Amino acid sequence: MLIGLLLGCGGACASAPDRPDRAGTPPAPQAAAAPGAARPPWPAMPTPARGRLDAAVAANLACEGCHDEVAREWRASLHRSANTEPAYRRAFAIEPMPFCRGCHAPEAAPAEPEPEAVGALGVGCVTCHVTAASSADASAGVLAAPWTRPGPPPAAPHPVVRDARFAGAPACASCHEFSFPTARGRRPEDLMQSTLTEHRSSPAADRPCADCHMPAGAAGRRSHAFVGSRDPAFVRSAVTVSARRTSAAAVEITLAPANAGHAFPTGDLFRRLEISAEALGPDDMVLGQADRYLARHFVIRPGQIGRRLIGDDRVHAAPVTVALDVGPAGEGREIAWRVAYQRVAHPEGVDERDALVEGEITVASGRLAP
Ligand code: HEC
Ligand code: HEC
Ligand code: HEC
Ligand code: HEC
Ligand code: HEC
Q1: Residues whose CB falls within 8 Å of the CB of residue 105, separated by 6 or more in sequence, listed in order
Q2: Is 49 in contact with 106 (CB distance < 8 Å)?
Q3: pTM confidence score
Q4: How far is residue 257's CA from residue 146's CA, in Å, rounded to a whole number?
Q5: How far apart, in Å, are the Cα atoms of 203 and each of 12, 104, 134, 214, 272?
Q6: Rounded to an integer, what distance in angstroms lies between the CA atom of residue 237 and that of residue 235?
Q7: What is residue 9's predicted lDDT score, i.e. its pLDDT?
Q8: Dihedrals φ, ψ of 283, to 5°?
Q9: Which terminus of the chain is less hemmed in, N or C, by CB atoms within 10 Å?
Q10: Residue 105 — very low, low, confident or very high, per pLDDT cuts 50/70/90?
Q11: pLDDT score for 40
Q12: What is the arithmetic mean of pLDDT over 23-35?
């Protein structure tokens, strides 16, 4: 019971080891809270805007020094480059807001330009594992998932605080779902990213984010490469795609959710699927063409701040079928079709065809005979 209270995970603590010495102690102010007073759950899960600056950089170097393999994976991850990645730098140059810095350079003080080393740290080991406000050092207690492998966990030279929430979506929640800076609420149209809500209503709702994004390697240790939008095989695994010709000029392309743990695409606003079809003449000359984008669609309204969501036709829990008509040129000709996942730059206007594509992965493609 005591452990349950300390770990703040109620009944979910059943899988936590009975090692009170490794559970650490809650920070003093909360321990001293009046009986019956509502206390925030302890330990805190990772959040943006930590402001621990150089202390975080130094503490992170110490983690890296002992956890060699994990550190190597993390250094090549988008968490590490969250503040330095060129796509982010370009977008931040258009909207340089403390709001952005809070998440992309979480150890910085959001209202001030980040020192270079703090920016280069990005989302660090300390950001996720040491959530004490006052210290970034491992001695403040390192968050870990409940131990589930055979035998006791190996001894660590620092306190390890095991919490069931850290093995689930709550470990990712406060950074991977959030409202526009100008929004007042958390309605679907207020959300700039909505991966957590999408996950809850997906067929994979009962699978933790780490199941897919931190797969366990040979030694049973979870990867910190945080596989995602840059990995073609992983992106392709999100859906199964089929196509059929429904008339001389028309094709139907169906995307059914497969390994997706949320909408496809999810994450940043400017991710989309381009579905296209072309009627091919001699030497594959394009004689007729049609396309459509599956995305969250936004408009910018004159005189008003922020983007307004006007539609969401991404792949959620059910299959999505797109019908495309290439026109009379399709008659008696082959039709080539393609589904492409695209990362596009912060669009200047509203015409989706004008957007600058920064990265693209072909999810599926094929040809249909006349
Ligand atoms: C002096 C070396 C050292 C330092 C510094 C250090 N660790 Fe550890 N840590 C270990 C060892 C050894 C273990 C136990 C073996 C293992 O799990 O890798 C451990 C265990 C852990 C665990 C528990 C793994 C599990 O589930 O059993 C986590 C998480 C962790 N460390 C993260 C960190 C983070 C984050 C930092 C920096 C804030 C850090 N460590 C600093 C040596 C260190
Ligand atoms: C974005 C958040 C995040 C970052 C950044 C991060 N970790 Fe982790 N780490 C986790 C989560 C979540 C788990 C537990 C996953 C599970 O078992 O469900 C974990 C697990 C671990 C483990 C135990 C691995 C195992 O399976 O035995 C160690 C050790 C560890 N992290 C160390 C580090 C170190 C060192 C760094 C920096 C080089 C780091 N982590 C960066 C979130 C993070
Ligand atoms: C402190 C905030 C924070 C936390 C906590 C956090 N993330 Fe992230 N994550 C980010 C940011 C910021 C990026 C964007 C990096 C960039 O600029 O590409 C990111 C990127 C990612 C990506 C790569 C996306 C892509 O486009 O490929 C994955 C996957 C990911 N996070 C998964 C997780 C998971 C799983 C957890 C929980 C275990 C987690 N994150 C916790 C802030 C966070
Ligand atoms: C069943 C497996 C699965 C689960 C569970 C899962 N994901 Fe994913 N995730 C994927 C796949 C596959 C992709 C690549 C396709 C895409 O972009 O949606 C992906 C992509 C992402 C991306 C990059 C999106 C982009 O296009 O830039 C982020 C960020 C992300 N996931 C975060 C999360 C978070 C946070 C959770 C938990 C709330 C989670 N995922 C749960 C499979 C999963
Ligand atoms: C609460 C956290 C949070 C805030 C605030 C935030 N972001 Fe992000 N951002 C993320 C996460 C998480 C991802 C990863 C999702 C993905 O890759 O699709 C991301 C991804 C991105 C990407 C894609 C990066 C890449 O590597 O492809 C860009 C660009 C971006 N954000 C720009 C911004 C800008 C500009 C702001 C401020 C207006 C901002 N973000 C505010 C969490 C945040």
Answers
A1: 82, 83, 114, 118, 119, 121, 122
A2: yes
A3: 0.93
A4: 30
A5: 22, 29, 39, 19, 21
A6: 5
A7: 30
A8: 55, 35
A9: N
A10: very high
A11: 63
A12: 39
Largest CA distance in the chain: 81
CATH classification (class only), 232-368? mainly beta
Written as one letter, the residue type at 148 is T
Express each pLDDT in 41-90 by its tens digit: 789 999 999 999 999 999 999 999 999 999 999 999 999 999 999 999 99
In the DSSP assignment, the letter for residue 37 is -
Q: Domain locations in the chain?
A: 19-29+39-213, 232-368
Do the Cβ atoms of 164 and 143 come closer than 8 Å?
no
* Span from the CA of 104 to the centroid of ligand 3 (angstroms): 9
pLDDT higher than 50, residue 17: no
Q: How far is the CA of 228 from the centre of ligand 4 (A)?
A: 7
Give residue 136 CA to ligand 1 midpoint distance, Å. 14
Give the torsion through C-alpha atoms of 64, 68, 69, 73, to 10 deg.
30
Ligand 1, from 66, 79, 129, 166: best to mutate by most atoms within 8 Å of Cβ? 66
